[in-house]
Design a protein that fits this description.
224 residues, 13% strand, seven-stranded mixed beta sheet, alpha/beta
């Protein structure tokens, strides 16, 4: 297992991560409101309809992290609800889980123009909110979907093909409580749809089985 840490990111002056006695749900909602008003990326772009903060169980043991909302996500204000989202739902179901039992988020909370890959400065401006989401939830494991989310979470420049399927660690900044969360990088569901080969499907399923074992879930021999 590789232990990696995250470098400094561009951040606004965030409020206290968690108030005394505050639930995860309330802390996330307070963070969502702050992000909508102050994010140095999302408050400057004007090509999106809705912010897509994230959704799911605020006490989830498993969090899926993608890169940015697409057109359908932007329209509905929810993460992973387009074609890639349907594939992610299948992946979650194959693990024996339900969508509302996990948490799903992206690095960027606003759709990039023409669905392009997030730019490095966008990632560093919007990403600190994701780190705070993760610090509030404190999941057992994160599945990093695709190269941009993997590179951000692990502070690496390695390609997804080289590092998928290998456990690594996200080291949270000390100002939000520090600590480590295990990360399993895998292919993005959109890549899986574009390259729907037996080899790619087996690779993703193998990655998900690693996560299932870490979460002590039953691991059947085949999956979607």
């Amino acid at each position: 297992m590789v232990a990696l840490s995250l470098g400094d990111a561009v951040t606004p002056d965030f409020p206290t991560l968690r108030l005394e006695g505050e639930s995860n749900s309330d802390a996330l909602e307070r963070l969502r409101r702050f992000h909508a008003e102050h994010c140095p990326h999302c408050t400057r772009v004007n090509t999106h309809r809705n912010l897509v903060f994230g959704e799911g169980d605020p006490e989830a043991s498993l969090v899926f992290v993608g890169e940015a909302p697409g057109e359908t996500e932007d329209e509905l204000g929810r993460p992973f609800v387009g074609r890639a989202g349907q594939k992610l739902d299948e992946m979650i179901a194959a693990m024996g889980l339900e969508r509302d039992s996990v948490y799903i988020a992206n690095i960027l909370k606003a759709r990039p123009p023409n669905n392009r890959t997030p730019l490095p400065d966008e990632v560093m401006r919007c990403g600190p909110t994701l780190l705070r989401q993760l610090a509030i939830i404190r999941p057992t494991a994160i599945v990093a979907l695709g190269a941009p989310s993997t590179k951000f979470l692990l502070g690496t420049s390695e390609g997804i093909t080289r590092i998928r399927g290998v456990w690594a660690r996200l080291t949270l900044p000390e100002e939000i409580g520090g600590g480590e969360i295990e990360v399993m990088p895998t292919f993005h569901p959109a890549y899986l749809l574009r390259n729907y080969t037996v080899e790619t499907r087996k690779a993703v399923w193998s990655d998900l089985q690693h996560v299932m074992r870490r979460l002590e879930l039953p691991t059947p021999n085949t999956g979607g």
